[in-house]
Amino acid sequence: MYPDESDIKKEKAKARDLKNSQWWKRRCAKGRCYYCMRPTPPRELTMDHIVALSRGGKTTKGNVTPACKECNTQKKYLLPMEWDQYLNSIKQVK
User: Fold this and answer.
1) pLDDT digits (tens, 9 = 90+) for 70-89
2) What's the CATH number where 61 sits?
3) Number of domains within the chain
């Protein structure tokens, strides 16, 4: 079952709080995108929900990861398995 708007709103509020935590700041301080592994300045990393809120994901330490803007935008709401298929298709084209 997919969450309704009020559930998503609550999870986004949790994400805003988590972004201000020392835990999140330490995660970003490493300066690497979780997906492409490119070095990225910590202030440019975004919070990505591995399982998107729209797909029932929650804002928990186990479900968020630093991502560069490009990867976060490309991934959208895809599940990890769907995202892996997308990345593999791009690698085959190159």
Assistant:
1) 999 999 999 888 988 887 87
2) 1.10.30.50
3) 1
